[in-house]
Amino acid sequence: MRKPLLAGNWKMNKTIDESVALVSELAEKVKGVDDREILVCPTYPALKPVADAIAGTNIMLGAQNIFWEEKGAYTGEVSGPMLKAAGCKYVIIGHSERRQYFGETDETVNKRVKAALKYRLLPIICVGETLEEREKDVTKKVVETQLKGGINGLTTDELLLTTIAYEPVWAIGTGKTASPEQAEEVHAFIRGLLPAEVKDTVRILYGGSMNPGNVKELMAKEDIDGGLIGGASLKAEDFAAIVKY
Ligand code: PGA
């Protein structure tokens, strides 16, 4: 049985004070929920303050990216040990916004995934096709290439620590959710690509305009094990409603 994971990706939103206020409000609203995992991924400056605010609650902390070196002359980057020390358990890797605006490739995704695992952070690897790719009917090919590139060289034990997020780019921040059937088709396809020893254990999250109104029918699908939620995770009430779908 895969435990659902509801992960809030706050992207580049909220100051430290706003982040602490948001997570504190959320903590009140999701108190006692223990049959699913709840994760928030704030900006780097807010990591430690949010970690302190959620100490003793059922909310976990994640980062939105990681660099593969441990330390050194890499201006602007943040490493695994730094994220660990700030209280992170998870890290989002290869989000489509990173691929689109910051030159992320399947190779760099793979390096970040390996770095995360090396420092005992649980990677959430994002894959997903653009609208153009969907219209050209190459969704599965795109997703397969991204997935295989991202998990390349991982051992079975490492794969068991990994979460995949299927996020169709055309559904991110657009209010246009994939239908549960569209999402399930790709989720089942992704599961089928995973090695037999891990495929029933690895969680596959859906991301792209998930909200309190559509979460239930998405989560009803066999291969959808949770959500990576952007916009709706910025409002405690909405994110709490999603968590408690
Ligand atoms: P959205 O973002 O929920 O705002 O569509 C999801 C994501 O990009 O992770």
Automatic annotation (TrEMBL):
* One GO BP annotation of this record: gluconeogenesis
Primary localization class, coarse: cytoplasm
Q: What is its EC number?
A: 5.3.1.1
Which pathway does the UniProt entry assign to this protein?
Carbohydrate degradation; glycolysis; D-glyceraldehyde 3-phosphate from glycerone phosphate: step 1/1; Carbohydrate biosynthesis; gluconeogenesis
* Record-listed substrate binding positions: 9-11, 173, 209, 230-231
Q: Name one GO cellular component term.
A: cytosol
Its catalytic activity? D-glyceraldehyde 3-phosphate = dihydroxyacetone phosphate
Q: Record's Pfam families?
A: TIM (PF00121)
Protein localization? Cytoplasm
**What's this protein's family per the entry?**
Belongs to the triosephosphate isomerase family.
Quote the subunit structure annotation: Homodimer.
Described purpose of this protein according to its UniProt entry:
Involved in the gluconeogenesis. Catalyzes stereospecifically the conversion of dihydroxyacetone phosphate (DHAP) to D-glyceraldehyde-3-phosphate (G3P).
Q: What protein is this chain from?
A: Triosephosphate isomerase
